Amino acid sequence: MRRFLLLMMVLLFSTAIFAEEGWELVDGILAKVDDKVITLSEVRAERAILRWGGEEDALATGEVVRELVKRALIVSEASKLRLTATEDEVRGELAVLAGAGGPPSLFWKKMADIGFTRVEVEERARAVTLVARYLAFRKETTYVSESDVRKYYSDKADELGEKSLAEARDEVRERLAEEKYSVELKEWVEEQVQRGRVRIMSLPGLND
After folding, report:
1. Which of 88, 104, 128, 163 allows an S-S link to 167, with CB 3.0 to 4.6 Å?
2. Residues 98-111 pLDDT 10s
3. Is residue 8 part of a domain?
4. Domain check: are 121 and 173 in the same one?
5. C-alpha angle with apex 130: 125 to 132, nearest 5 degrees?
6. Radius of gyration over every alpha carbon of the chain, rounded to an integer in angstroms
7. Which residues have CB under 8 Å from 56's CB, separation 6+?
8. Within a 10 A sphere around the Cβ of 138, how many other Cβ atoms?
């Protein structure tokens, strides 16, 4: 802990000098989740990956930091439950990612250009796969009562077409489970922040 606090003091002092002199901050710690740090270089790599996949609206630094924080929290919880991502799943995620915005060779070149190694890209793919597995697990275990299903069916009958309640029950239950768990997940992340598991730093010049 002392070493981390000392590192933060040095980082913040150095950042203040860099900002005053007009220098560009090459790297720094933007957030900390338990013992994992999220750096500026990770955020830049994540933004490049999102841009490669066509997600042009998800590039603000603060938004990306929050997503990386949430990912780190979920990976930690998945590990506690001993959930794992298989090598086949990781390779599949890598294949989809690398081919999302053009030739895979161009993707790997872009990653190399920003200093994001293949190992780091693979670690990201493993984390993304693990998050998906964890969210699927939690959604499956989210309780939805029969009364909620019937109420949703009654309120949203037009959206369900001509389906009877029996025909629409599974679809309605899945929709409600996803809605319910999305709220629970947001509340859970906020709770982890309040418990002190998450520290988000404020560094000058990083508001883009």
Report:
1. 163
2. 998 889 999 999 99
3. no
4. no
5. 100
6. 21
7. none
8. 18
- Per-residue CA distances from 90 to 53, 95, 110, 140, 183 (Å): 17, 9, 20, 22, 28
Instruction: Write the DSSP assignment of 120-188 as a string of letters.
Output: HHHHHHHHHHHHHHHHHHHHHT----HHHHHHHHHHTGGGGTT--HHHHHHHHHHHHHHHHHHHHHHHH
**Residues of the domain holding 163:** 142-197
In a domain, 107, yes or no: yes
CA 172 to chain centre: 27
Query: What does the chain come to in residues?
Result: 208
The burial class, CB within 10 Å (0-12 / 13-18 / 19+), for 68 is buried
Position 169: which residue type? Answer: R
Condensed to tens digits (0 to 9), the pLDDT of residues 135-154 reads 999 888 899 999 999 999 99
Please report where in the chains the tokens 């998800």 appear, as a residue: 58
Rounded Cα distance between 41 and 61, Å, is 11
